[in-house]
Design brief:
Radius of gyration: 17 Å
Low-confidence stretches: 1-5
Helix content: 40-55%
Structural class: alpha/beta
Number of helices: 9
Largest sheet: 7 strands, parallel
Distance between the termini: 50 Å
Shape: globular
Number of strands: 7
Strand content: 5-15%
Length: 257
Amino acid sequence: MNENAQSRRVVLVTGGGIGIGRAACETFAAAGDHVVVTDILEDEGRQAVEAISAAGGSAEFIRLDVRSTPEAEALVADILDRVGRLDVIVANAGIAHRVPLDGLTDEKWDETFDIDLKGMLRVIRPALPAMRRQGSGSIVCLSSIMGVAYGWDEHVHYSAAKAGVVGLVRGLAVELAGDGIRVNGVAPGYIRTAQLLSRENSLGPEGAEQAAAHIPMKRLGEPEDIADVIQFLASPAARYLTGQVLAVDGGLLVGRY
Protein backbone atom coordinates (compact mmCIF):
# COMPACT_ATOMS: atom_id res chain seq x y z
CA MET A 1 0.00 0.00 0.00
CA ASN A 2 1.39 3.40 -0.91
CA GLU A 3 1.74 6.22 1.61
CA ASN A 4 -1.17 8.19 0.19
CA ALA A 5 -3.43 5.25 0.99
CA GLN A 6 -2.93 5.90 4.70
CA SER A 7 -5.34 8.85 4.53
CA ARG A 8 -7.89 7.11 2.30
CA ARG A 9 -10.88 5.09 3.39
CA VAL A 10 -9.98 1.37 3.28
CA VAL A 11 -12.43 -0.94 1.50
CA LEU A 12 -12.23 -4.74 1.53
CA VAL A 13 -14.06 -6.56 -1.27
CA THR A 14 -14.40 -10.34 -1.42
CA GLY A 15 -14.78 -11.94 -4.84
CA GLY A 16 -13.31 -8.77 -6.31
CA GLY A 17 -11.69 -10.28 -9.38
CA ILE A 18 -14.72 -10.52 -11.66
CA GLY A 19 -18.30 -9.41 -12.15
CA ILE A 20 -20.04 -7.32 -9.52
CA GLY A 21 -17.06 -7.58 -7.18
CA ARG A 22 -14.66 -6.14 -9.71
CA ALA A 23 -17.08 -3.35 -10.63
CA ALA A 24 -17.37 -2.51 -6.93
CA CYS A 25 -13.59 -2.38 -6.57
CA GLU A 26 -13.29 -0.01 -9.52
CA THR A 27 -16.13 2.19 -8.29
CA PHE A 28 -14.70 2.62 -4.79
CA ALA A 29 -11.21 3.25 -6.19
CA ALA A 30 -12.54 5.87 -8.60
CA ALA A 31 -14.08 7.66 -5.62
CA GLY A 32 -10.67 7.87 -3.95
CA ASP A 33 -10.78 4.89 -1.61
CA HIS A 34 -8.01 2.34 -1.18
CA VAL A 35 -9.38 -1.06 -2.21
CA VAL A 36 -8.19 -4.43 -0.99
CA VAL A 37 -9.22 -6.80 -3.77
CA THR A 38 -9.59 -10.39 -2.60
CA ASP A 39 -10.45 -13.52 -4.53
CA ILE A 40 -9.37 -17.11 -5.10
CA LEU A 41 -8.96 -16.13 -8.77
CA GLU A 42 -5.46 -14.75 -8.51
CA ASP A 43 -4.95 -13.71 -12.14
CA GLU A 44 -8.29 -11.90 -12.26
CA GLY A 45 -7.66 -10.24 -8.91
CA ARG A 46 -4.28 -8.92 -9.99
CA GLN A 47 -5.74 -7.74 -13.29
CA ALA A 48 -8.36 -5.77 -11.37
CA VAL A 49 -5.62 -4.08 -9.36
CA GLU A 50 -3.64 -3.30 -12.51
CA ALA A 51 -6.72 -1.71 -14.11
CA ILE A 52 -7.39 0.38 -11.00
CA SER A 53 -3.76 1.50 -10.81
CA ALA A 54 -3.71 2.37 -14.51
CA ALA A 55 -6.76 4.58 -13.91
CA GLY A 56 -4.97 6.39 -11.09
CA GLY A 57 -6.61 4.52 -8.21
CA SER A 58 -5.19 2.81 -5.15
CA ALA A 59 -5.56 -0.95 -4.74
CA GLU A 60 -3.82 -4.14 -3.74
CA PHE A 61 -4.60 -7.82 -4.24
CA ILE A 62 -4.58 -10.43 -1.49
CA ARG A 63 -5.67 -13.99 -2.18
CA LEU A 64 -8.50 -15.12 0.05
CA ASP A 65 -10.58 -18.28 0.19
CA VAL A 66 -13.60 -17.28 2.28
CA ARG A 67 -14.04 -20.93 3.28
CA SER A 68 -11.01 -20.55 5.53
CA THR A 69 -11.46 -18.86 8.91
CA PRO A 70 -7.68 -18.65 9.51
CA GLU A 71 -7.14 -17.01 6.09
CA ALA A 72 -9.90 -14.47 6.68
CA GLU A 73 -8.69 -13.61 10.17
CA ALA A 74 -5.08 -13.30 9.00
CA LEU A 75 -6.07 -11.04 6.11
CA VAL A 76 -8.05 -8.66 8.31
CA ALA A 77 -5.26 -8.63 10.92
CA ASP A 78 -2.71 -7.82 8.22
CA ILE A 79 -4.75 -4.86 6.94
CA LEU A 80 -5.22 -3.51 10.44
CA ASP A 81 -1.54 -3.98 11.30
CA ARG A 82 -0.38 -2.11 8.20
CA VAL A 83 -3.04 0.59 7.95
CA GLY A 84 -4.71 0.70 11.33
CA ARG A 85 -8.27 0.81 10.04
CA LEU A 86 -10.89 -0.89 7.92
CA ASP A 87 -13.85 1.24 6.89
CA VAL A 88 -15.94 -0.80 4.47
CA ILE A 89 -16.47 -4.50 3.83
CA VAL A 90 -18.23 -5.66 0.68
CA ALA A 91 -19.07 -9.32 1.24
CA ASN A 92 -19.60 -10.42 -2.33
CA ALA A 93 -17.86 -13.78 -2.87
CA GLY A 94 -20.28 -16.54 -3.80
CA ILE A 95 -21.10 -19.51 -6.00
CA ALA A 96 -24.31 -20.60 -7.73
CA HIS A 97 -24.19 -24.11 -9.15
CA ARG A 98 -27.20 -25.71 -10.82
CA VAL A 99 -28.07 -28.94 -9.02
CA PRO A 100 -31.47 -30.69 -9.36
CA LEU A 101 -33.01 -31.50 -6.01
CA ASP A 102 -32.58 -35.25 -6.41
CA GLY A 103 -28.84 -34.69 -6.86
CA LEU A 104 -28.44 -32.10 -4.11
CA THR A 105 -26.06 -33.76 -1.68
CA ASP A 106 -25.24 -32.65 1.83
CA GLU A 107 -21.78 -31.77 0.57
CA LYS A 108 -23.04 -29.41 -2.15
CA TRP A 109 -25.52 -27.78 0.25
CA ASP A 110 -22.78 -27.26 2.83
CA GLU A 111 -20.33 -25.91 0.24
CA THR A 112 -22.82 -23.29 -0.91
CA PHE A 113 -23.65 -22.14 2.61
CA ASP A 114 -19.98 -22.21 3.57
CA ILE A 115 -19.10 -19.76 0.80
CA ASP A 116 -22.26 -17.72 0.23
CA LEU A 117 -23.24 -17.16 3.86
CA LYS A 118 -20.63 -18.26 6.37
CA GLY A 119 -17.92 -16.81 4.14
CA MET A 120 -19.38 -13.38 4.89
CA LEU A 121 -19.25 -13.89 8.65
CA ARG A 122 -15.64 -15.04 8.46
CA VAL A 123 -14.55 -11.69 7.03
CA ILE A 124 -16.90 -9.47 9.03
CA ARG A 125 -16.30 -10.97 12.47
CA PRO A 126 -12.57 -10.21 12.84
CA ALA A 127 -13.06 -6.63 11.60
CA LEU A 128 -15.66 -5.69 14.20
CA PRO A 129 -13.34 -4.87 17.13
CA ALA A 130 -11.47 -2.31 15.00
CA MET A 131 -14.70 -0.84 13.60
CA ARG A 132 -16.07 -0.55 17.11
CA ARG A 133 -12.95 1.30 18.24
CA GLN A 134 -13.30 3.62 15.25
CA GLY A 135 -16.95 4.14 16.06
CA SER A 136 -17.74 3.74 12.38
CA GLY A 137 -17.92 1.23 9.58
CA SER A 138 -20.13 0.06 6.75
CA ILE A 139 -20.79 -3.52 5.70
CA VAL A 140 -22.60 -4.42 2.48
CA CYS A 141 -23.59 -8.04 1.83
CA LEU A 142 -24.69 -9.41 -1.53
CA SER A 143 -27.94 -11.32 -1.53
CA SER A 144 -30.08 -11.92 -4.65
CA ILE A 145 -33.65 -11.53 -5.79
CA MET A 146 -33.58 -15.35 -5.52
CA GLY A 147 -33.11 -14.87 -1.78
CA VAL A 148 -35.72 -12.16 -1.18
CA ALA A 149 -38.63 -12.85 -3.53
CA TYR A 150 -38.08 -15.65 -6.05
CA GLY A 151 -37.53 -19.34 -5.71
CA TRP A 152 -35.02 -20.76 -8.19
CA ASP A 153 -35.50 -24.32 -9.34
CA GLU A 154 -32.34 -26.45 -9.36
CA HIS A 155 -30.74 -23.78 -7.13
CA VAL A 156 -32.55 -24.47 -3.85
CA HIS A 157 -29.27 -24.36 -1.93
CA TYR A 158 -28.39 -20.99 -3.47
CA SER A 159 -31.81 -19.45 -2.80
CA ALA A 160 -31.69 -20.67 0.80
CA ALA A 161 -28.19 -19.26 1.38
CA LYS A 162 -29.08 -15.91 -0.16
CA ALA A 163 -32.21 -15.75 2.02
CA GLY A 164 -29.86 -16.35 4.94
CA VAL A 165 -27.91 -13.26 3.92
CA VAL A 166 -31.04 -11.19 4.57
CA GLY A 167 -31.20 -12.53 8.12
CA LEU A 168 -27.49 -11.91 8.59
CA VAL A 169 -27.88 -8.28 7.49
CA ARG A 170 -30.82 -7.65 9.80
CA GLY A 171 -29.26 -9.31 12.82
CA LEU A 172 -25.90 -7.60 12.44
CA ALA A 173 -27.51 -4.23 11.77
CA VAL A 174 -29.42 -4.29 15.04
CA GLU A 175 -26.48 -5.55 17.08
CA LEU A 176 -23.97 -3.09 15.63
CA ALA A 177 -26.04 0.07 15.20
CA GLY A 178 -25.07 1.39 18.62
CA ASP A 179 -21.40 1.08 17.68
CA GLY A 180 -21.75 3.34 14.65
CA ILE A 181 -21.54 0.41 12.21
CA ARG A 182 -24.14 0.14 9.45
CA VAL A 183 -25.00 -3.15 7.73
CA ASN A 184 -27.01 -3.34 4.53
CA GLY A 185 -27.45 -5.64 1.58
CA VAL A 186 -28.07 -5.61 -2.14
CA ALA A 187 -30.24 -8.15 -3.95
CA PRO A 188 -29.31 -8.00 -7.64
CA GLY A 189 -31.69 -9.11 -10.33
CA TYR A 190 -30.50 -10.41 -13.70
CA ILE A 191 -27.04 -8.91 -14.11
CA ARG A 192 -24.78 -9.48 -17.10
CA THR A 193 -22.02 -11.49 -15.41
CA ALA A 194 -20.14 -14.68 -16.20
CA GLN A 195 -22.45 -16.46 -13.75
CA LEU A 196 -25.65 -15.40 -15.51
CA LEU A 197 -24.21 -16.17 -18.95
CA SER A 198 -23.15 -19.69 -17.93
CA ARG A 199 -25.25 -22.31 -19.71
CA GLU A 200 -24.13 -24.90 -17.18
CA ASN A 201 -25.20 -23.08 -14.03
CA SER A 202 -27.57 -20.31 -15.07
CA LEU A 203 -29.56 -18.87 -17.98
CA GLY A 204 -26.89 -18.72 -20.66
CA PRO A 205 -26.72 -15.87 -23.21
CA GLU A 206 -30.00 -16.73 -24.93
CA GLY A 207 -31.92 -17.24 -21.71
CA ALA A 208 -30.57 -14.01 -20.31
CA GLU A 209 -31.84 -12.03 -23.27
CA GLN A 210 -35.24 -13.71 -22.96
CA ALA A 211 -35.34 -12.74 -19.30
CA ALA A 212 -34.55 -9.15 -20.22
CA ALA A 213 -37.83 -8.94 -22.11
CA HIS A 214 -39.71 -9.40 -18.81
CA ILE A 215 -37.80 -6.64 -17.01
CA PRO A 216 -39.75 -3.35 -17.02
CA MET A 217 -36.58 -1.43 -17.92
CA LYS A 218 -36.17 -3.83 -20.88
CA ARG A 219 -32.49 -4.62 -20.28
CA LEU A 220 -30.23 -6.76 -18.18
CA GLY A 221 -28.40 -5.03 -15.38
CA GLU A 222 -24.69 -4.37 -15.66
CA PRO A 223 -22.20 -4.95 -12.81
CA GLU A 224 -21.74 -1.19 -12.55
CA ASP A 225 -25.47 -0.79 -11.82
CA ILE A 226 -24.96 -2.83 -8.66
CA ALA A 227 -21.58 -1.32 -7.79
CA ASP A 228 -23.03 2.19 -7.67
CA VAL A 229 -25.68 1.07 -5.18
CA ILE A 230 -23.06 -0.70 -3.05
CA GLN A 231 -21.01 2.49 -2.98
CA PHE A 232 -24.08 4.51 -1.99
CA LEU A 233 -24.85 2.16 0.89
CA ALA A 234 -21.28 2.54 2.15
CA SER A 235 -21.31 6.32 1.79
CA PRO A 236 -22.31 9.12 4.18
CA ALA A 237 -25.35 9.66 1.96
CA ALA A 238 -26.80 6.48 3.49
CA ARG A 239 -25.89 7.48 7.05
CA TYR A 240 -29.37 6.76 8.47
CA LEU A 241 -29.91 3.54 6.55
CA THR A 242 -29.16 0.17 8.12
CA GLY A 243 -30.63 -3.32 8.11
CA GLN A 244 -32.02 -2.97 4.60
CA VAL A 245 -31.62 -5.20 1.55
CA LEU A 246 -32.24 -3.25 -1.65
CA ALA A 247 -33.48 -5.13 -4.71
CA VAL A 248 -31.71 -3.69 -7.76
CA ASP A 249 -33.47 -5.39 -10.64
CA GLY A 250 -34.74 -2.88 -13.21
CA GLY A 251 -38.26 -3.17 -11.78
CA LEU A 252 -38.52 -6.95 -12.18
CA LEU A 253 -40.04 -7.73 -8.79
CA VAL A 254 -42.62 -4.95 -8.78
CA GLY A 255 -43.46 -5.62 -12.40
CA ARG A 256 -44.16 -9.36 -12.08
CA TYR A 257 -47.20 -10.67 -13.89
